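Open question from group meeting: does this chain pack into something compact, or does most of it stay loose? Before anyone orders reagents, we agreed to write out a predicted structure and look at it together. Recording both the input and the output here so the notebook holds the full record.
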Amino acid sequence: MLLQAMPASLEFQRFQYAFTAHIRDPRVNPRPHGIEARRMRVYNGLVYNNVESFLLICFPVLRKMLGTRRWTRLVRAFLARHRSHSPFFRQIPDEFIQFLQTEWTASAQYPGYVLELAHYEWIELVLSVSTRIPDWDRIDPEGDLLEQRPVLNPVFASLHYHWPVQRIGPRARITPIETYLLVFRDAGDQVQFMEINAFTARLLNLLEAAELTGRGALEIVATESRHPMPEAVIQGGLTVMQELHARGALLGVLG
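Structure tokens returned:
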């Protein structure tokens, strides 16, 4: 009985899978038959360098802290194991964050802050390209932040980390510490970073999640903290909201 030859379309698909598998992980997947090693190295270099170039734009501090060897190993692992869901080059950093969050397990050779530092650098890109804009028809910039409902800047993120990511650098001595940050895009389209405390982070969480006046949110904070002087919490919170308003993190109140 004669064996039928594989259809040309299936043979081409088999070749494509072998080709891309080798590009993703050349150490594990052999070079496809029929392609010179020299030519294959060109393809490998083009793909790696293109992906890395988009990552370097977003994660310069992480790259500097890891050094060439650990950084390259991390990018190689991303290429080998992650299956991206977006065809857009700009979203390669998004896919990298997903990889770190769900597929990557750090070895003892990597510092414990890798994921949080990467997320901190990535959030600036996310907010800088956000298309959300304030609905100024519903906002009174001069309203009463305490007795009315404060309006948050729609392009903001309240972040909680276990490392002081904003201080990480080549010469810094970093140890774990609870860190709260507020990041938002100001009226000049510049992304601003503010270090805040747990009190302010909880206040922002309440204002974002519930239809509360400033006073209502601060009363919850006072109750949760069991502060012996609730009015002091409210007055301190008003000062915080006024500062956030002056910086552009709060835009005013619902008009």
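Observations to bring back to the group:
The beta strands are 139-140, 150-152, 156-161, 179-185, 191-196, 250-254.
The first strand starts at residue 139 and ends at 140.
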